[in-house]
Design brief:
This protein has about 60 residues and is an all-alpha fold. The protein has one domain. Helix 1 runs antiparallel to helix 2. About 5% of the residues are buried.
Length: about 60
């Protein structure tokens, strides 16, 4: 993933998180489920990319 793709993915994740909390405040359970699911999927992608880059940089220092 390029730095720009990472940035865009994080921005999308934050949008989903904000929408989740908006749905939660509005007591909209369907919206909460939808945005939470999207948010968690994006968080997993971000976490995987962080792990991938961490592993690459760790290999380079050895």
């Amino acid at each position: 993933m390029s730095p720009r793709e990472f940035f865009d993915k994080v921005a999308e994740m934050r949008k989903c998180q904000r929408n989740y909390y908006s749905a939660r405040r509005a007591k909209n359970p369907d919206g909460q489920r939808e945005w939470l699911g999207k948010s968690l999927a994006l968080e997993t992608e971000i976490d995987n990319e962080i792990t991938r880059v961490h592993n690459l940089t760790a290999q380079q220092t050895n």
